[in-house]
Specification:
single chain; QueA-like; Thrombin, subunit H; 329 residues; 25% helix; globular; alpha+beta
Length: 329
């Protein structure tokens, strides 16, 4: 836990999280559901293997993807998709376009809509630093790599801060007079793509779709008007709140949209007062976001966050997707 004004660290268990909430607080969580976005396939001409990660849907059966190895996936390449057990599925894909970032655009055939068959042919899109052996180990992640409040399908990675919550803990939070509300941001490349440019201004954030419900917008606006806190669970929830607020003079407005907001120091936060988040990868936009949140409107937040990370390393915390959480107060 980071007390940002005092620059003080505190070690607690996640079951203690509700004790830091106050009656009247509003807890905002991302209810996006992870889809089985990783596919395996073979080149129908050469038999070479491909790994496909769905990134963004353009239309039914029309997707931008990350394809490995990309050098063997030229426009016109035909790919036969395999089931997780290795058997060929009825689904096939054709590479129809490439972009400057090396992503491929695929047109699928063999299903009315690929989303209808992903549970059969797809795998949980775990990050590459998590290794699984065989189908049985991967099957457990279908539940584990999903928040208990996941509802709207569309993410290709989990909003990981939400993974810490159980139904029992959410009930305890409500019993303390704290309202739980949901926004939706479908996690895509905009969330997890690393920053590779020499300057922040040159970094291009990818758009991700979001939705804010009417109850969530009303609850947040009431909280801000009444001097009560808004607690963002995860960087994805925070990005939705701040994206909408920037367009609406600091207010949250219900509706759908797309965001490519890049939050880095210095940044003036309009909505979020507290942030619950996991520990992030080096050179990521998310590390810059938490640096900005640790010192709103100022530039020294990176130093404070890296000090907190060093403390977490000394305490042998787990980082990244299935890792531990940090509460920034």
């Amino acid at each position: 836990m980071l007390h940002r004004k005092a620059g003080r660290f505190e070690h607690r268990r996640f079951c203690d999280f509700p004790t830091y909430l106050r009656p009247g607080d509003k807890l905002l969580l991302n209810n996006s559901r992870v889809i089985p976005a990783r596919l395996r396939g073979v080149n129908t001409h050469t038999g070479g293997a491909f790994e496909i990660l769905l990134l963004e849907q353009n239309a039914i059966n029309d997707w931008w993807v990350m394809l490995k190895p990309g050098r063997r996936a030229r426009v016109g390449t035909q790919i036969a998709v395999r089931h997780p057990d290795g058997k060929l599925a009825a689904l096939q894909a054709n590479v129809i376009e490439t972009n400057e970032e090396g992503h491929r655009r695929l047109r699928f055939q063999g299903a009315r809509d690929i989303l209808d068959v992903l549970d059969e042919v797809g795998e949980v899109p775990l990050p590459p630093y998590i290794n699984r052996r065989g189908i049985n180990e991967m099957a457990r992640d279908k539940d584990r790599y999903q928040t208990v409040f996941a509802d709207t399908a569309g993410s290709v990675a989990a909003p990981t801060a939400g993974l810490h919550f159980t139904e029992r803990l959410l009930g305890e939070i409500r019993a303390r007079g704290v309202e739980n509300h949901f926004v939706t941001l479908h996690v895509g490349l905009g969330t997890f793509a690393p920053v590779k440019t020499e300057t922040l201004a040159a970094h291009k954030m990818h758009e991700e779709s979001f939705e804010v419900s009417e109850p969530a917008a009303r609850a947040v606006n009431e909280a801000k008007a009444g001097g009560r806190r808004v607690i963002a669970v995860g960087t994805t929830s925070l990005r939705v709140l701040e994206s909408v607020a920037r367009l609406n003079r600091g207010r949250l407005v219900a509706g759908r949209g797309r965001t490519k907001i890049f939050i880095h120091p210095p940044f003036d936060f309009k909505i979020a007062d507290v942030l619950l988040t996991n520990f992030h990868l080096p050179c990521s936009s998310l590390l810059m976001l938490v640096s900005a949140f640790s010192a709103p409107g100022e530039t020294h937040g990176r130093k404070l966050i890296l000090s907190a990370y060093a403390e977490a390393i000394r305490a042998r915390y787990r980082f990244f997707s299935y890792g531990d959480a940090m509460l920034i107060l």
